[in-house]
Each structure stands twice: as structure tokens, then as C-alpha cells.
Write a structure and sequence with these properties.
The complex is a heterodimer of chains A (279) and B (465). Chain A has 279 residues and is of the alpha/beta class. In chain A, the strands form 2 sheets. An 8-stranded parallel β-barrel of chain A has the order 1-2-3-4-5-6-7-8, surrounded by 5 helices. A two-stranded antiparallel ribbon of chain A has the order 9-10. Chain A is globular and about 65 Å long. The mean pLDDT of chain A is 93. With 465 residues, chain B is α/β, with parallel strands linked by helices. Chain B has 2 domains: 192 residues, Glutaconate Coenzyme A-transferase (3-Layer(aba) Sandwich); 237 residues, Glutaconate Coenzyme A-transferase (3-Layer(aba) Sandwich), CATH 3.40.1080. Chain B contains 14 helices and 27 strands. Chain B has a 10-stranded mixed beta sheet. In chain B, strands 15-14-13-12-16-19-23-24-25 form a 9-stranded mixed beta sheet, sandwiched between helices. In chain B, helix 2 runs parallel beside helix 3 and helix 8 runs parallel beside helix 9. The N and C termini of chain B lie far apart (50 Å). The chains are: A alpha/beta (279), B alpha/beta (465). The interface between A and B is medium-sized, with 12 and 12 residues.
Chain lengths: 279, 465
């Protein structure tokens, strides 16, 4: 349901202190790539102490742990008592997923896992990964995948992994989040979101807070979509029918469910929905 | 009378102890005139100098020398930072420091509260008839707005220039107000005017504050045809100016005027036809200087026409919106932009108190936590602008509306903005910073904050905190 997943480094006090003012629907505190090896202990300590005292109430909070030992276990020990919405596991495949959940058990904790799918091999095990009971959903790790495959930054090459993850997520009713845009050009960010959105994505990662407003705005339902959804849901509720026509188009169960989802997202993000919107 | 050397000029001036000397700060940190003149006066062993520069910048090292040599007794200015401020914090003044507003300084000069003996005016171009202007010359700095009343009302007015032209079409300082002209190789380095922020912030907190400020302006129903607007040259202000300009374009409306210090961001709106006039008391960058020279709807104005509270034609009387900063604000919305929390001078009102009082919507924008301390204090270090003139405070964590503006509060709440009391916002900050121990007020009295009508708003202190 979150539209924007903002990565912030776990060892930068100013970013931690302001994690809930960047307007991201979800914040991922990073212990992995954004934190140098020499600073990982500092990130664990700072994040843990900060979140114990100032756990935000207005956005979802995740921690991106390291995939490798012994860092992964140290990360889990540092966060095991925090009321996180989950952990983000990089380089997710069947083995890393098993290792993470074993370590959760070892330290008497449990978290939902959002896995970053960023290795070619993982794409051959999506069914096993998505079926894992702790697996909440996937983030596409486009940059790492690009390095593995060797393609240049472009949306044609990303279309395949993007679509694969969408289909897997839909099959298992899990969430899926698009890879972050890595530049600072807002027009290019909008184009990148448009490409992901056209495939079916409704959420995207951000690696800079200034990307968040654009992502949030792009994944808000449009006023037209809300009005149409209201009419569909209202006719469905009034007639009890799962199949009817509206404006010359056939409406059936998937369309009704999509309309309900549109209204649910609109309400969640504070969009005004009034009866007058129906006309 | 024209002079080719400073020594020759001084031979014709009544240089003596106790003189009241004024300078302006349009060249900001690129000014060479103040240092040049003061050092020549020190060479004549003059003491008890009463100094009236409109602003003091780090480049003004001659003031520091004069203080150390105990030649300067009193200083009256609108803005002060750098080594002079450091010295005053440690050693005080033999007399007193008076911090005025831009409009208040002009009022005091016109009404005779301030009687300047000699105004030394750095003037980028002087014509053969002795008219002066800032829009041309090798150190063109644009508007000379803060010097115009000095020229009109000082006993003696001296233009100091490095460029003589045949004729100035639109003089900013008129020949009838000029007594002497001194030609020097250089009046400074115009690049020094761009010593401030002057870049749109890329800081996510600053941009969030800017976006929320636009939402406040829209919710308060000010975004309509003919709106007038003032913002400064700080990073957040420039971001707001850019967003304001975009909003004008999106709504298909035209602002009547932008006023105050002018930047490239303001010029962009003028050139796009989104604002009819720029009324410019000070240019903050080269784009503004070029625009003032080329665009008839970009007009200079004097500090009196800008903000003198007793001038019925002052431009800010018709100002709708002003965006202002704060180094501290208290729970009664009183604002400090003059000192840091250790009582050291770090700036000054400039037009802060003037515009806050006159504008219909006076908005303070600032991060809630600055240098690991809360912006909002129970008690201010220094009161620059009375809280009764502030309408709201916008930080990254929400919007606090002055309780006396009940309509504004309702408008913002109706628009779904995150409105809270200033006390609640202070508590949010204290949750992170805790409540610091009070800082001891220094024992020495340095001077006073003077309101725009000459009233005392607060006391300035020097010594250990």
C-alpha cells in the first residue's frame, strides 16, 4: 500500500532524526550499501538507540540488513526488539532467506521480509521465494542486476525483471516495489515512474528524499480514476451484481476489486472523496 | 567639486573628531570604499567617530582597526556580521551599537533623528554633471536604494566612483544632492555582492518547508491576480520564489509587484510576464543588476520608498506576502534575526521588522532544529521583530499560526495542513534536543534594537555568556 520507500543511511543522525518528515510512506534505514564497513557498528547502535526513543508513527519503518555473515547476525541482534514493519533483505535468494529466518529463530525474534531481488539467479527461484511465509514482498534491485547482466541503464532491459516480479507478487498476493531512480533529474524520474507505472507498479524506492514528493504524487489515483471507481463501487453495492455495464463498458469482478483498491488508496493518502465526485 | 585623490578630497572636508559618517552596503562583501575612507581618516588621527553604515560585512576590516585603536565611539547600522561582530562581543563599544531597520534608518535620517555629517557613497557610475547611478560602471551593483536618503539629507555628500560617464539617463542620486566626487581606481569588487546564499536549496527539509509555504499561501487565498510578494536571497526563500512563480504560471495570473532585495529568481518571473514590476532596493546578483539596467519595469527605489513607516507611499504598505527567516522565535512569535543564542551579533533586521509589520501575510520559514537546538525558545536572546506582526511559522514538522489569526488557522486546517500550536511544535523539537540550560546574559550593555519608529525593542549585550 505504501507508494514510496525511502532509503536513509543508518549512521547519519540528521537523516534519522528527520526520517518521518520527508513524507515517505515507508522508510528503510540502511545498514548495507550506504554504510561503510567501518561504520556498521555505529549505524546499528545509533539506529537502535534512536528508534527505541523516537519510533515514528506516521510511516512504515524497515531496516535493510546486510546479507552476509557475521554482519547479518549483528544487524538482527541490534534490531530484534524494535517494532519494525519488517526487514529488507538484500541479494535475496532461497539461501539468504533461509539464513535470515534461522537467525531470527536463534535470537527469538521474527520479522516480515521484503527481499531485494537483484541477482539473475533469484529470478529462477521466484516461486520458492515468494511462497516463503516470512516473505512480504519484493523490491527490484535494478542497479545490481544491471551490473550482473551488463545492460546499460534503459527501460527496455528493465521491462523483463519488472514484469517477472509483478507476476510473482500478483500470484502470491505480496507487495512489489520498483527499483530506485539514481539520478537527480526530476523529469527523468517522472519518466522512469511512468514506465514502471505502465507495467503495473504502484510503489517505488527512493534513494534521495527529494524524489519522494514526485513518487507519491505519481502513485496517487487520479481524480478521474477516483470518480469512476466510486461509480463502479456504488452500482455494485446498490445492485449486488458482480457483472454490469457502465458507460458502455462491461464491469466484472476484477474491475470492481480494482475500483475498491483505488478508493482504499485514495482514502489512505488523504484524497477527498465526496458523493459529488460521482457525477 | 571633483577630486582625483582621497587626500585632496579630505583637504576640502571638515574632518574632525566626533564626525558622523555614513556608508552603504550595496557592494556587500565586495566594498572597498568604507575601508579606504576610514583608513585615510585614521591617518589624520581622528577619534570619537560616529559610524552609520547601512550594513557591515566581513570585508570591512577598517572598522575593526578603528575599534582596536579606540577611534570609533558609536555604531548605528541595519546589519552586522563577521570580525566586527566578534570584536563587539568580546570588547563592547565605548558608546553604543544601535541596530535599526532599513525603513527605520531612512525615517531617522529624513526626520532628523540621525544627522549625518558626511555620506561617503560608493557609486558605480557618476556622470559629468555629478549624477550617480549603480546600474553601469565596472562595479555596477544595481540599486543604490539604501544610500539615497543619505545623499539627500547629509550635510555633505561625497560620491566615490571608478567610472565617469558622459550622461546618466536615470540618475539614482541627483546632482543637486552631491557636494564632492572622488574618482578612484576601484570602489571594490562587484563579485562580492553574491556573498550570500543565492542558490535554491537542495536540502530536503528546506524544500519541504518551501512546498508547505506555497500550500499556506494558496490556502490563505492570496494566490490571485495582482498579488504582491517579497522573499529574500536565502536558499529556502529562493525555492519559495521559484514555486510561487510556477504557481502564478499554472493559475494564469500576474503578480502586481515583487519588492525588496532582488535576485535572478525574481527577474525570471518578470521576464516571463508573471509579475508586472520589480521594486528594487538592493540587487543580490548580476542577473538582477542587468535586469535593472535593461527592463523598464524593474525599478530602483529608496529605502524610504521601500519601508519608511512614515512614508505613506512606501511600497510594502501594499505588500501581500513576505517570507522571512529566524535564528530564534519565542512562543509569542517574537523573532530574533540579530544575534545567536550567545548574544553575538550575526545579522540584523534589515527589512525584517518593516515588512513583517506591513505585509498582510508574514511567514517565518525555518528548520525546527538548528545546530542541535530548538528554534523555538521560551525567551529570545534578542527581539528583532515583535511577534504581533508575525502570522505563522512554517517548519518541516508543521505550521504554527499566531493565535490572533483565527481565520488563517481555520483556512489552513480546512486545507488539511498540519497546523499545531507553537508550544506543541516546541515540544516536538525538545523531544529531540531536550531543553538546554539557559545561557547566561552577558553583563555588558552593547546597545539596543531600535524599532522602525525609533522605539527600543530590546537591549544588546557584550561579554562572556
Amino acid at each position: 500500500m505504501a507508494r514510496s520507500y525511502l532509503f536513509i543511511p543508518g549512521n547519519v543522525p540528521r537523516m534519522l532524526q528527520n526520517m518521518d518528515v520527508f513524507d515517505a510512506d515507508a522508510v528503510i534505514v540502511d545498514f548495507e550499501d550506504a554504510v561503510a564497513t567501518s561504520d556498521k557498528d555505529e549505524a546499528r547502535h545509533l539506529t537502535s538507540k534512536f528508534l527505541q526513543k523516537h519510533f515514528p508513527e506516521t510511516c512504515e519503518i524497515y531496516v535493510r540488513v546486510n546479507a552476509e555473515q557475521p554482519w547479518l547476525e549483528a544487524d538482527i541482534i541490534a534490531i530484534k526488539d524494535l517494532p519494525l514493519n519488517g526487514v529488507v533483505l538484500p541479494k535475496t535468494d532461497v539461501e539468504t532467506l533461509s539464513l535470515a529466518t534461522e537467525l531470527f529463530d536463534k535470537h527469538a525474534t521474527a520479522f516480515d521480509i521484503i527481499g531485494i531481488i537483484e541477482t539473475p539467479r533469484a529470478f529462477f527461484h521466484l516461486e520458492t521465494i515468494f511462497a516463503h511465509p516470512s516473505f512480504k514482498g519484493a523490491i527490484l534491485g535494478g542497479e545490481d542486476l544491471r551490473k550482473h547482466i551488463g545492460f546499460k541503464p534503459n527501460d527496455i532491459a528493465l521491462a523483463f525483471p519488472r514484469t517477472q516480479l509483478l507476476y510473482a507478487a500478483a500470484s502470491f498476493n505480496k507487495i512489489v516495489v520498483d527499483t530506485p531512480y539514481t539520478g537527480m533529474d526530476n523529469a527523468a524520474l517522472e519518466a522512469d515512474i511512468e514506465n514502471a507505472s505502465a507495467l503495473g507498479y504502484k510503489a517505488k524506492c527512493a534513494i534521495h528524499p527529494n524524489h519522494v514528493p514526485t513518487i507519491n504524487a505519481a502513485f496517487l489515483p487520479s481524480t478521474t480514476a477516483i470518480k469512476t471507481a466510486m461509480r463502479i463501487v456504488k452500482q455494485h453495492e446498490n445492485t449486488g451484481s458482480m457483472r454490469f455495464s457502465l458507460d458502455g463498458k462491461m464491469i466484472d469482478k476484477p474491475v470492481i476489486l480494482e475500483a475498491k483498491d483505488t478508493l482504499k488508496r485514495a482514502r489512505k493518502y488523504g484524497m477527498e472523496i465526496r458523493d459529488s465526485d460521482e457525477t | 567639486m571633483r577630486h582625483e585623490s582621497l587626500a585632496a578630497l579630505l583637504e576640502h572636508l571638515p574632518i574632525k573628531d566626533g564626525l558622523k559618517l555614513s556608508f552603504h552596503h550595496h557592494l556587500r562583501n565586495g566594498d572597498a570604499v568604507l575601508n579606504m575612507v576610514l583608513r585615510a581618516i585614521y591617518d589624520r588621527d581622528i577619534r570619537d567617530i560616529q559610524l552609520y553604515p547601512s550594513g557591515i560585512f566581513p570585508v570591512h576590516t577598517a572598522i575593526l582597526e578603528g575599534l582596536k585603536q579606540e577611534r570609533i565611539t558609536n555604531i548605528t547600522t541595519n546589519y552586522l556580521n563577521g570580525p566586527v561582530a566578534d570584536h563587539l562581543k568580546k570588547h563592547g563599544l565605548p558608546g553604543k551599537l544601535t541596530m535599526q531597520t532599513h525603513g527605520g534608518r531612512a525615517r531617522a535620517i529624513i526626520e532628523g533623528d540621525t544627522r549625518i555629517d558626511i555620506a561617503f557613497i560608493a557609486t558605480p557610475a557618476v556622470d559629468k554633471a555629478n549624477n550617480g547611478s549603480g546600474i553601469t560602471g565596472k562595479n555596477a551593483c544595481g540599486s543604490l536604494g539604501y544610500a539615497i536618503e543619505d545623499a539627500k539629507h547629509s550635510k555633505i555628500t561625497v560620491l566615490i566612483t571608478d567610472t565617469i560617464v558622459d550622461r546618466l539617463e536615470v540618475p539614482q542620486i541627483k546632482k543637486e544632492d552631491v557636494d564632492h566626487v572622488l574618482v578612484v581606481p576601484s570602489i571594490g569588487d562587484v563579485a562580492g555582492i553574491e556573498s550570500g546564499t543565492l542558490k535554491i536549496t537542495n536540502d530536503p527539509l528546506g524544500l519541504k518547508i518551501a512546498r508547505d509555504t506555497m500550500r499556506v499561501i494558496e490556502a490563505a487565498m492570496f494566490l490571485k491576480e495582482g498579488v504582491s510578494f517579497q522573499s529574500g536571497a536565502g536558499g529556502i526563500s529562493l525555492a519559495i520564489t521559484a514555486l510561487f512563480t510556477k504557481a502564478l504560471e499554472k493559475k494564469g495570473i500576474t503578480a502586481s509587484f515583487f519588492t525588496g532585495g532582488i535576485t535572478a529568481a525574481h527577474v525570471k518571473a518578470l521576464e516571463a510576464g508573471l509579475v508586472k514590476n520589480l521594486y528594487d532596493v538592493q540587487c543580490f546578483d548580476k542577473v538582477a543588476i542587468r535586469s535593472l539596467r535593461e527592463n523598464a519595469n524593474h525599478r530602483f527605489m529608496s529605502a524610504s520608498d521601500y519601508a519608511n513607516p512614515h512614508n505613506p507611499k512606501r511600497k510594502i504598505k501594499d505588500l501581500d506576502i513576505v517570507i522571512l527567516g529566524a535564528s530564534e522565535i519565542d512562543t509569542d512569535f517574537n523573532v530574533n534575526v540579530t544575534s545567536d543564542s550567545y548574544y553575538k551579533i550575526i545579522g540584523g533586521s534589515g527589512g525584517h521588522a518593516d515588512t513583517a509589520e506591513d505585509a498582510k501575510l508574514s511567514i517565518i520559514v525555518s528548520p525546527l532544529i538548528k545546530a542541535r537546538t530548538a528554534l523555538i525558545k521560551d525567551q529570545l536572546t534578542t527581539r528583532t521583530t515583535p511577534g504581533e506582526h508575525i502570522d505563522c511559522l512554517i517548519t518541516e514538522r508543521g505550521i504554527a499560526v499566531n493565535p490572533k489569526h483565527k481565520t488563517l488557522k481555520k483556512q489552513l486546517q480546512a486545507a488539511g495542513l498540519n497546523v499545531m500550536t507553537i508550544e506543541a511544535m516546541q515540544n516536538l523539537a525538545h523531544a529531540f534536543t531536550d531543553i538546554p540550560n539557559p545561557i547566561r546574559k552577558p553583563a555588558g550593555i552593547l546597545g539596543r534594537i531600535e524599532g522602525r519608529r525609533g522605539e527600543t525593542l530590546d537591549t544588546l549585550y557584550w561579554g562572556e555568556s
